[in-house]
Amino acid sequence: MHPKDESLSATIAHGQQLLMSAGIENPRRESRLLLAHALGLPALGPVGCGTVDQAVRERFDAMLRRRMAHEPFAYITGSQGFWTLDLAVSPDTLIPRADSETVIEALLTLRPERGRALRLLDLGTGTGCLLLAALSEFPCAVGLGIDRSEAACRMAAANAVRNGLAGRAMMLCGEWLEAVRLGEADRFDVVISNPPYIPVQDIAGLMPEVSGHEPRLALDGGPDGLRSYRIILAALREALAPGGLALLEIGQGQDMAVSALAGASGLRLASLRADLGGVVRVVCLEAA
């Protein structure tokens, strides 16, 4: 039982001990962040002699139990930062990761003119993170996000509103490029995608935050991890405007296989982009 009022430092230490016992990395940092969330604060400053009341302790303990079960931190707080955006997240979507920002960095390198009126397409949009980050950098662009999960489409649409981009972003529920019927005038200047790329037999061996909580639909890349790329690349050339650009996020070691699939589909490899860890993360393709 907790005392009626407990100091901030004691509450943090209590959470740290429980998280450490559950094998959570950086348990003190996570305890502080969870307590800040329980208090309704973005972060905790110096704790000093502040105290925690019963209602806050109960919220904090409920969050600790979820985190000790290896539920991702972002699902507990309901939000995740990506690029310059603040995004709502839920178990219906993958949690946006810093590695995926490599897609936006590649886009800005290959299309540096920020004033261009680009037509953007995001395949497997999830939270909308890639599409919305791109739109935030290209103020004259418009974009379409497609996801086969209705819940993900609703989340992406809500994130567009949350970040002031709803007027330039539309979300559509459907299966990859089958969701749209394109004439030549409807083709896209830029297609971005972070499709499922984990070989199905490898999912169980991922960290429990991923294998036990993130949506399997957004992880499962089939037996070799390349199933989604085969589907996307078979139709991608017809979706791109002349000179159009496609940026596909990939898993570690998939660059040569995805590049070969792209070449067989009539697309030119423009470059490969590595993330901050040095892993090739994005295949950059151009239409003839």
How would you characterize the overall build of this protein?
With 288 residues, the chain is an alpha/beta fold. It has 2 domains: 6-69; 80-286, Rossmann fold, CATH 3.40.50. The chain is 37% helix and 20% strand. The protein contains 10 helices and 11 strands. It has helices at residues 8-21, 27-39, 54-68, 73-77, 101-110, 129-137, 150-162, 208-211, 227-239, 255-264, and strands spanning 6-7, 51-52, 79-82, 85-88, 119-123, 142-147, 169-173, 188-193, 240-249, 268-274, 280-286. A 7-stranded mixed beta sheet has the order 7-6-5-8-9-11-10, with helices on both faces. A hairpin with a 5-residue loop joins β10 and β11. The model has no long low-confidence stretch (mean pLDDT 93).
Provide the fold topology.
Layout: E1 6-7, H1 8-21, H2 27-39, E2 51-52, H3 54-68, H4 73-77, E3 79-82, E4 85-88, H5 101-110, E5 119-123, H6 129-137, E6 142-147, H7 150-162, E7 169-173, E8 188-193, H8 208-211, H9 227-239, E9 240-249, H10 255-264, E10 268-274, E11 280-286
Helix pairs in contact: 1-2, 1-3, 2-3, 5-6
